[in-house]
Task: inverse folding
């Protein structure tokens, strides 16, 4: 865009577990690509996460959003630690950033690259779809007072909120994405069992469809969609789903396209009013921390999405091509999740060499 700032200011939230390792590994790759395309990145590290929770009582400071607001984008490694309850991690950092910065699109591509084996051996020709997950409301809403766990420990109430604004904007983004891709959109709901929120969602899909008559719309219940992502993954182009369903579908997407070590993600505010946040789909992976075997490619691909969002499309393209060529090269180093014996650093260095 015209108002872009160069150098770009990027806030780094390396976080917990393998987060710092993959961010450290990806950064020199991003810098090499930026250099080749004539811009620079100015990064600031924020040490928010589980360690801070233990020492200060919160995952991030009270004015955390104010501190991040001026940045062009945010790169997150991962947050979460076995010593901190998952709902604290989610509600103490990830959800406030996603909601506070109106990052209402969670975009998660699932592309099977040449050279990568999918567990679904007979469908490996054309796995290339993207999930648009609603990222600010739905099942992850908190409507003060209504949600509770009964004091007698015999009851808990958890609701979901679907607003017209919130639903329309994610659905419209998904239609736009489908228009730019193969013109096919799959809306995933559970309208048979959830007759209010999900039927409302269906109605809005119908309304927005009128603006995009050329897009073919398919509707699937989430149980059928989960099955079909395994049975016929090549049939999908763009999927749109609520916060919870989108989360589940994107784990399936990650595994059919080569695993957690490869899957990128963007929490995107399409208005650019606030910074967007890019992060690998995977979590902090406590089981492999400190072993130097975390695959940095999910983070590198998240960086390609970050560059695209900043308007640096040719840098993003370079990054995507570098990853694609690296994965297609049988002699290139691979971390153990992809069947190799290479370290995180080996992969980073190989990617850097390809950029030069
Ligand atoms: P979260 O609760 O944060 O989603 P999780 O418990 O679901 O975390 P992940 O961190 O997503 O777990 O990891 C799931 C599995 O995938 C783990 O066994 C982990 O070792 C593996 N894994 C995740 N990320 C990577 C990576 N970058 N490289 C290699 N293996 C990974
Ligand atoms: Mg997980």
Result:
């Amino acid at each position: 865009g015209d108002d872009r700032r160069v150098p770009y200011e990027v806030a780094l939230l390396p976080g917990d577990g393998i987060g710092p390792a993959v961010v450290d590994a990806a950064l020199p790759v991003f810098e090499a690509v930026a250099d080749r395309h004539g811009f620079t990145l100015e990064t600031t590290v924020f040490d928010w996460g589980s360690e801070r929770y233990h020492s200060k009582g919160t995952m991030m400071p009270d004015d955390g959003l104010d501190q991040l607001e001026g940045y062009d984008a945010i790169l997150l490694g991962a947050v979460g630690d076995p010593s901190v309850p998952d709902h604290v991690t989610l509600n103490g950092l990830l959800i406030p950033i996603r909601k506070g910065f109106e990052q209402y699109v969670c975009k998660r591509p699932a592309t099977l690259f040449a050279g990568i084996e999918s567990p679904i051996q007979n469908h490996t020709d054309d796995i290339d779809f993207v999930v648009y997950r609603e990222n600010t409301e739905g099942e992850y809403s908190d409507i003060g007072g209504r949600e509770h766990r009964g004091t007698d420990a015999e009851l808990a109430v958890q609701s979901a909120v679907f607003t017209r604004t919130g639903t329309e904007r994610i659905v419209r983004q998904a239609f736009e994405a489908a228009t730019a891709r193969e013109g096919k959109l799959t809306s995933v709901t559970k309208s048979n069992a959830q007759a209010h929120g999900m039927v409302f969602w269906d109605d809005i899909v119908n309304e927005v469809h009128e603006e995009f008559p050329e897009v073919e719309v398919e509707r699937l219940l989430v149980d059928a969609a989960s099955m079909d992502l395994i049975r016929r993954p090549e049939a999908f182009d763009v999927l749109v789903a609520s916060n919870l369903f989108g989360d589940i579908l994107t784990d399936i997407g990650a595994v059919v396209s080569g695993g957690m070590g490869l899957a990128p993600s963007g929490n995107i505010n399409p208005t650019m009013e606030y910074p967007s946040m890019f992060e690998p789909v995977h979590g902090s992976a406590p089981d492999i921390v400190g072993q130097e075997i975390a695959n940095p490619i999910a983070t590198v691909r998240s960086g390609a999405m970050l560059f695209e969002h900043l308007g640096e499309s040719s840098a993003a393209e370079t990054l995507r091509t570098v990853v694609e060529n690296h994965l297609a090269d049988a002699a290139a180093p691979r971390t153990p999740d992809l069947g190799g014996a290479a370290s995180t650093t080996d992969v980073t260095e190989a990617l850097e060499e390809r950029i030069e």
Observations:
- The pocket of magnesium ion (ligand 2) is lined by residues 283 (CB under 6 Å).
- The chain has two domains: 1-103+263-356, 118-257.
